[in-house]
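Quick question about two entries, pasted in order.
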Amino acid sequence: MVSFETFLPTNNPVQRKNSGTMGYDVPEGVDVRGRYDPEFSKILTRDALQFVTDLQREFRNHIKYAMECRREAKMRYNNGGLPGFDPATKYIREGEWVCAPVPAAVADRRVEITGPVERKMVINALNSGAKVFMADFEDALSPSWENLMRGHVNLRDAVNRTITFHDQARNKVYKLNDQTAKLFVRPRGWHLPEAHIFIDGEPATGCLVDFGLYFFHNYANFRKAQGQGFGPFFYLPKMEHSREARIWNNVFDRAEKWAGIEKGSIRATVLIETLPAVFQMNEILYELRDHSVGLNCGRWDYIFSYVKTFQGHPDRLLPDRVQVGMGQHFMRSYSDLLIHTCHKRGVHAMGGMAAQIPIRDDPAANDAALELVRKDKLREVKAGHDGTWAAHPGLIPACMEVFTNNMANAPNQINSMKRLDASVLIEEDLLQSPRGFRTMEGLRLNTRVGIQYLAAWLTGAGSVPLYNLMEDAATAEISRVQNWQWLKYGVELDGDGLGVKVNLDLFGRVVEEEMARIEREVGKEKFKKGMYKEACKLFTRQCTAPVLDDFLTLDAYNNIVMYHPIGSSRL
């Protein structure tokens, strides 16, 4: 039997609270350990839990094998190996196949907004004027029991168009407009457990819980109200290999068969946000060819993955993270190859995130930030992307204007921008080390952002405004792994004339000084009430660990898991 401790670190004991005598009605072999709530019980029905349990039992061994393959690949990279195109699947890359036609309901995806499944956010995002809202159970959400379950309640109400929110402070009621964005849902990655639900003695797979509960409750109404006979629609994160896409395809097939809906009804966009996955884009689309509506440039996680993949390669050190933009050759090559691959296969090639947020107290700075967004989006649309991401509703008009003005009134560029020039890109283009320099300010910014993000995450916020950018787990991960890399290899901070080498003493001083700065910036009261000291301890431990942890949030997860002795009425 696999225990909870097998999946998670044990240095932070799981919290337990008494939940009273009520419990969820669960199938055989299922144990719900999260707090009982009458509203949650409408999501965690016996039939819904049985659906999730059936998925877990059918696919758990495939998932475990895929995670073992990830570990083996990591060992190869750490021993000097490089990711690359697989000779065994050359026939897929060179074949003339295409994916199923894109449904009319999602042909136009010029601007998509993303955000957590928080109630007010869901309403505002659906009303934002964007073509798509990606409701996020992953990097923009701190996956506490309360956040997850309330998220499912919110999405059910959104699909049913009954969702409202009363802002008591403003005495304002929020509700859906007649015209709303199309709803996509992003479940968690394969690697994350759901520790509040045990199935056959081990934690459920987080993404199967996210997908299963949402699909069970919403597929019928979504297809009628939003999908024009298709759907539901999803975003799939953190994949590293096409075998992981094959599992998702089989999950979709299984769900469609259970629901009695046509094969290919469910559609998904895969985020290419790991370095190994860029060499598997054709193969990923091939595995999902009946269910695919494209790929997306998850560029912040992609940078994080570059460092993680090359953690054993001292010749591939990143410059300050602010210098690792789409102008770097390896980043531009990744974007160009994604566009070529998607359009060759007949699906969308989605651009990256504009993380800026409006700067209301400084019009000049706000105008400058918007101009940077416009330039980035102009680069994307001219490169051939079919749409882009925005983190804030205030960016949507600017992004929409750029894409609309450069797409000749077409809903996408799938047939008009094939990017045949990108077909000659080779492995070296995708692996080229980024150029730039490293500075003390880069080390300080990494530390300050990482600690503040993690402090917010520990208190339930997964999408955090910091220094006029909307940060999620991806940017915190870049901060962490870059600090770890610089410490491991004792890099010289060569960009500010100091010539200082990064070591534990220097990092300790930086942490102390940045904590003092955070306290000044947020105020003594907020600092005292927040979890900044706990976050600092976690972040510092991760940055100085002899072995790089795969994910910051996996280590931190134990801090937000809360068990209640009575969660299920049948154990």
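Here is the second entry:
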Amino acid sequence: MLQSQLRSHQFQYVGVSFCDSQTYSRPWLQTCKCQRPESASGITAGDVTSAKHVLEFQDVQQLKQEKEVLTSNGTNGATSDIYDTISINSIEEEAWNLLRESVVYYCGNPIGTIAAQDPTSSSVLNYDQVFIRDFIPSGIAFLLKGEFDIVRNFILYTLQLQSWEKTMDCHSPGQGLMPASFKVRTVPLDGDDSATEEVLDPDFGEAAIGRVAPVDSGLWWIILLRAYGKCSGDLSVQERVDVQTGIKMILKLCLADGFDMFPTLLVTDGSCMIDRRMGIHGHPLEIQALFYSALLCAREMLTPEDGSTDLIRALNNRLVALSFHIREYYWLDLKKLNEIYRYKTEEYSYDAINKFNIYPDQISPWLVEWMPNKGGYLIGNLQPAHMDFRFFSLGNLLSVINSLATVEQSHAILDLIEAKWSDLVAEMPFKICYPALDGQEWQIITGSDPKNTPWSYHNAGSWPTLLWQLTVACIKMKRTHIAAKAVEIAERRISRDRWPEYYDTKRSRFIGKQSRLYQTWSIAGYLVAKQLLADPSKANILITEEDSELVNALISANPRGKRGRKNFKQKTYIV
């Protein structure tokens, strides 16, 4: 009854119900080749937003007053449960309303969601654009809801942007590069100043802060493409010639030969979710986990034909090498940490134990105390003479989801999360990394970045959007109680805090000092987590199980015992 009362009086004067769960349409925004008006019926967007907040505040106050009256009449237990259920349902309803309000249209069709719609911020920057990585949880939320059109449109329109010419300072990157983001712009029609048309304006990094190319965009695109096919049952999209070509272009860009001796992708700092200088250049775990997922998804979707035989062979070879490399050299638990502590250095041989010449003095005091007896994780980065021992959440969670980590390692990662709950979750899930860089280390590595101060933003800030990856990982390992607990913690304040982008401080007590409010992927991450917890079987569209062929290839290859030369039958030569 209370919900119906809330629904009946919201925005009746506007003529559009923001509680409508079946349609994206906002008629005054669905325009093509004409100017898009900023308001309707004399009511501005600001008026609607402020009215919405006033009504929500009044509704919450009314609910609280009714709860207090019923509690005083001795019906506290049952009433409390009903009130909590109503509160949670209202949070979900608010989240869906906000997600639909963030939808961007191109020629009348839904094409994505903007990064944030913060009415309190005077500086938009690029938060009014559709980001590839930011749309992933939004797209999954719509897929799970049975609304496929927006995801299909997103996949096909961003594919068109892949082939655009992209140049910065006279240099053009590889053809397979996907944009970081795009914006729908209204421009005058050629030859007719009185008419306008809508165009897509992509950013491949040439306008981004730091001018960093988005390595992860194409990898996320492949993962979403597979999820769309598995959820909708519409395989015609991935079988299209242009889509197959797009997949191959991304793979060729990633599998291209280079100078690197490792199967991992070599990237610059800031080329993924952590898009500012944070010392992750080299072979960051997040990129490797995404790379592995994209390879598996692409192998599943590529149509067999003569032209793709060599590509599939290279893909399979890379999967084997990458899987072994990450599982063997990135894994860290108490036993492995003790081995590193006793490493000998400067070993020159094919059979060296300390292959990357890691100096034991690199082990930080915090790690010795922090590593639990039960549990472990994949380190953040590995290069010659360098191990980044920080715990990076996204890379570890993705490694559980896509089976890059073994079953034992996956359980150990979740064991560590439970053991270090107060550090990684505390008052808002989930730390993007742990611990924070501070002092001279922060100055040197980040360049004294004022946005990445200790325990803020990408420097160990807490990001609610990571709820969905945590939920999928927990469902896969049949430990959903971990995700349910994290979602419950988020529900205590995320709506009241107006859906921030991230939280600051060691225990996530403050809304981030530069955090955007009504951040779309915070909203979508929560919705995906709720939908998957309600029906865990739906997580299969995102999970890749351990490949038996891959396991057999790993066993037969036995890279540990191989030297860098082929074994030829010994012959005698006269020199």
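Reply: Residues 144 and 535 are 10 Å apart (CA to CA). Residues 45-72 form the longest helix (28 residues). Hope that helps.
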